[in-house]
Design goal:
With 95 residues, this protein is mostly helical. Helix 1 packs antiparallel against helix 2 and helix 1 packs parallel to helix 4. It starts with a helix and ends with a helix. It is 78% helix and 0% strand.
Length: 95
Amino acid sequence: MTGRELNQISAKFLIFLSVIALLTVLDGYTLPHQTDEGAGAHIFQLSIAAVVATIILFLATADWKRPLRSARPLAIPTAVLVLAFGALYYLEHYR
């Protein structure tokens, strides 16, 4: 498997993991307030840890001769993660 293929796979996996993190947080809005962390919190934590590892793989396999083209696939996962952390902040502090 070439570096370019690994980069493309890791970019798709980043989107997948980011959406999992967002959906896990949004699922927290459907549940009553809990005093203890549930399975959703652990799924969120594991997905964020996997996002970090996947970003490292993505950056290691990126073609840095074209930095803008290499960084462009990070836009969607970044936006989804910002939404996920924003929703988590609201869920934890105001709900």
